[in-house]
TrEMBL record:
Keywords assigned: Allosteric enzyme, Lyase, Pyridoxal phosphate
Gene (UniProt): ilvA
GO terms assigned for molecular function: L-serine ammonia-lyase activity; pyridoxal phosphate binding; threonine deaminase activity
Source species taxonomy: Bacteria, Bacillati, Actinomycetota, Actinomycetes, Micrococcales
GO BP term, example: L-serine catabolic process
Protein name: L-threonine dehydratase catabolic TdcB
Length: 410
């Protein structure tokens, strides 16, 4: 077996090897998502994995296969957070020294967790690519073994153990939705479930999901080879990879049935939906499959499983995402309403809003606004609403009362 080969036997070996470290995470039937798709739908809760993501699987299997001489030299990795924690934890379990390069803007909880597992953390650059360069230089200088986040057969096989678990727990699964960054996770899962599907003489559809700001696979597949893209800003840092791997690319090209792309608003809505409906915390990258469902991008062939790949999220980012998700789902709206400077106008607006069931969250009343005449004031009011239709009802009610509301955010 060469480094470029990933087989089902390879994944079975990985499952046996990592059993004492990585957990067999649960699945949960998602009634709300089942209603949206029209088929039984489950969530594979890998956000409940030790270290908070699937990355522990590939890291544990990769490190377990190092020789004694390689272990003695230590390992080095580059990551925005989840791979860092996976490598650090696996190295701690196996008694291997680990050095992790993380970008300067890495989420604080991920950075602190990586340190807590005993790794030496070096922050450098602003992207994972910067960190990969730093890690490669460190490996060259010290002899440490480079643990790539996705582009190694052992890493791919480790992640593929999720495919075995999914079919063990949802034997009738026909569509599996998986986030894609570099492609290690979906490549491993695809190898596993395609083999298991063939043995059961049925087709299992694998759908990948990328963030629009970092979607390198569609142009790469169109070109027939890995293509580097210029990444945009995305809240889904866990799948923000600029170029597919040399090993992962052909596996994704040949085994993944479809790749869809989701926008930032849908990612925020997905995090909020999972939080509200299941009381679970999931990071934006891990919520990408839910974003694809909410965005109407999934055409299931039958029983569907959406993989929640990780739950490591900075609480401050979670706070912003919830606010953004409320706006994106039509449940929060900020209005600017010019008013004549006369007593009673504020209470009158409040009465109009109350009459249509809009809950006032925040109010700013000022005379100091550009464009106002001496006889005018402006009211900026944020209201909780029940969705886009209710927002239209709120605006219509204000206009019927002779106001001219302007939507600042919705």
């Amino acid at each position: 077996m060469t480094q470029h080969e990933v087989t089902f036997a390879h994944i079975e070996d990985a499952a046996r090897t990592i059993a004492g470290v990585a957990q067999h995470t649960p699945v949960d039937q998602a009634t709300y998502l089942s209603g949206l798709l029209g088929v039984p739908t489950y969530m594979k809760l890998e956000n409940l994995q030790r270290t908070g993501s699937f990355k522990l699987r590939g890291a544990t299997y990769r490190l377990s296969r190092l020789t004694d001489a390689e272990r003695a030299r230590g390992v080095v990795a580059a990551s925005a957070g989840n791979h860092a924690q996976g490598v650090a934890f696996a190295a701690q379990q196996l008694g291997i020294d680990a050095t992790i390069f993380m970008p300067l803007g890495a989420p604080v909880p991920k950075l602190l967790a990586t340190k807590s597992y005993g790794a030496t953390v070096i922050t450098t650059g602003t992207t994972v690519e910067d960190c990969l360069a730093g890690a490669a230089e460190h490996a060259e200088r010290t002899g440490a073994v480079m643990i790539h986040p996705f582009d190694h057969a052992d890493v791919i096989a480790g992640q593929g153990t999720l495919g075995i678990e999914i079919i063990e727990d949802v034997a009738e699964a026909q569509t599996i939705i998986v986030p894609i960054g570099g492609g290690g996770l979906i490549a491993g899962i695809a190898v596993a479930v395609k083999e298991l599907g063939a043995r059961a003489r049925r087709e299992i559809k694998v759908v990948g999901v990328q963030a629009a700001a970092s979607a390198a696979y569609p142009p790469s597949i169109a070109a027939g080879h890995p293509v580097a893209i210029e990444r945009g800003a995305t809240i889904a840092d866990g799948i923000a990879v600029a170029k597919p791997g040399e090993i992962t690319f052909p596996l994704v090209r040949d085994l993944v049935d479809e790749i869809v792309v989701v926008e930032e608003d849908d990612l925020a809505r997905a995090v909020l939906t999972v939080f509200e409906r299941t009381k679970l915390v999931v990071e934006p990258a891990g919520a990408a499959p839910i974003a694809a469902i909410l965005g109407g991008l999934i055409e299931p062939t039958g029983t569907t499983v959406a993989l929640l790949s990780g739950g490591n999220i900075d609480p401050l980012l979670m706070q912003r995402i919830i606010a953004h998700g409320l706006v994106a789902s039509g449940r929060y709206m900020t209005l600017r309403v010019p008013l004549p400077d006369r007593p009673g106008q504020l209470s009158r607006v409040a009465e109009v809003l109350a009459a249509v069931g809009a809950n006032v969250i925040e109010v700013l009343h000022t005379r100091h606004d550009m464009g106002l005449t001496l006889n005018d004031v402006v009211l900026q009011v944020s209201v909780e609403t029940r969705g886009p239709n209710h927002q239209s009802e709120v605006l219509d009610a204000l206009r019927a009362a002779d106001y001219t509301p302007e939507v600042v955010s919705s």
